Amino acid sequence: MKNFEVTFKNGLLLDKQTGKRINLKPFETYYLQGDDNSFLLEEYIKTDYKPLDASQKLKTLENRHNGYELKQLASAGDKFVFRVGLGKRFEEDVVREYLFDAALQEDLYMKKKHNKASWTLCNCVCNSPNLLEGELGFPFQNVEANSLSELFANVVSTYFNMKRSTACNAFKTFYYYPKEDRPTLYWLKSSKKLNLDLKRKAIVINRKQKEILKRN
């Protein structure tokens, strides 16, 4: 039986004697011994996300993004779903695809500079409280973030570390939660669903039509 004196840093177990990372074999049983106060049953990284109400959010964005045009895409309390797929299945992975939900804690806006064409999403406090489909092999716990792209990255880095990129196009990745259907991976892929990119395009088209009417 091997014994190591280890330290824990940045999510890694490090051998104190050699400084090298210790990799654990999936599904094996390990016994950890340490002082009582060395074990944290709650999440040890606490990020103080403070959602803003509707008027505070808009005022904050207007001050922060002076010279930008703002358009609201969704409201606090709205829910989305997003898929995480792995390029290949490792020994410890039960499946290769997972479906999560996302809940907005404050209003979601997109922004663009005046006289520019491209829109980008504004920061928005949000969280992913549930794994809707897929098997991790252990209970899923809530993940929080300050934007939808950060939420995707945090879910990936927490549950699929180094198994795929943490980057995503949030416009195309996050789909509005269905009002009548139960969201599943099959539901998401079986036909075109409303994602943030389609909502963005609809807003842009409507905006252009109003500009044309004004000119006429």
TrEMBL record:
It comes from the Bacteria. This is Uncharacterized protein. It comes from Winogradskyella echinorum.
